[in-house]
Design a protein that fits this description.
Layout: H1 2-5, E1 9-12, E2 15-18, E3 25-32, H2 40-56, H3 60-65, E4 66-73, E5 77-85, H4 102-123, E6 131-136, H5 145-156, E7 164-169, H6 175-181, E8 185-188, H7 194-208, E9 225-227
Parallel strand pairs: 3-4, 3-6, 6-7, 7-8
Antiparallel strand pairs: 1-2, 4-5, 8-9
Helix pairs in contact: 2-7, 4-5
């Protein structure tokens, strides 16, 4: 294992990790690509995701420590990119169409996070609390009951939970749905994703320089984003 830890970058069948001896942060982008996101919204989302990669990798620690996966949901959930160092992320060009299988997307995202944490444990790699960062402009067209229960379970494990689930709504989103999933709900004034992805990049950098299990203060949200009050 000492020889492995001295290697800056390792690749296994289906698994990649940079600097395995350092703490790592698993982040899933869970993106609504249903038909209502067509046109300007999906164009803005594609630009913002690609810029997020470029901005985050400017920081040397975040470049090594942030591992990213991307999942889309429309008629079904689909893994766009599996976990990899953010510096290796392929450029995305997401399309749109179909309905809003949000429940299936959330379930897949939780499964991927659990798999990644198991991989870190097998490598002896310390890890920060993983994030799932969901963006949606509509209401789910599938059953989200199981997904809701799984989020609640993961967020309640231990003293401070094993997951941070964020739900970001753009015009057309269903407030009741989002606030039923998590207390971390954000509303955007319009489907312009530059500001929120800049904030996400800053958050990944801030966490990357912190200690594992440290309660890290995040930057204020951008001007076009507001916290959605919930009953949690």
């Amino acid at each position: 294992m000492n020889e492995l830890r001295q290697t800056a970058y390792l690749e296994f069948p289906g698994e990649e990790i940079a600097s395995p001896g350092e703490p790592h942060m698993a982040c899933v982008l869970l993106l609504d690509t249903s038909g209502s996101m067509s046109g300007a919204p999906i164009e803005s989302l594609n630009r913002a995701v690609n810029d997020f990669k470029e901005q985050t990798t400017l920081d040397e620690l975040a470049k090594r420590r942030v591992d990213l996966a991307i999942i889309e949901f429309n008629d079904r959930a689909r893994l766009v990119q599996d976990f990899m160092p953010i510096s290796m992320m392929d450029r995305v060009e997401l399309g749109t169409g179909g309905c809003t299988a949000m429940g299936a997307g959330i379930e897949m995202a939780i499964d991927k996070v659990r798999e990644r944490n198991s991989f870190y444990a097998a490598m002896g790699t310390p890890c920060y609390k993983p994030w799932i960062f969901m963006i949606t402009d509509g209401a789910p067209t599938d059953d989200i009951a199981s997904a809701r229960e799984r989020i609640a379970l993961e967020e309640s494990k231990g003293r401070s939970g094993k997951l941070k689930f964020w739900a970001v709504g753009v015009p057309g989103y269903d407030r009741e749905t989002l606030t039923s999933l998590t207390k971390r709900c954000i509303s955007l004034d319009q489907a312009d994703f530059r500001g929120i992805f800049n904030w996400l990049s800053e958050s990944m950098v801030t966490i990357s320089v912190s200690r594992v299990d440290e309660n890290t203060a995040l930057a204020p949200l951008p001007a076009d984003a507001q916290v959605i009050p919930s009953d949690w």
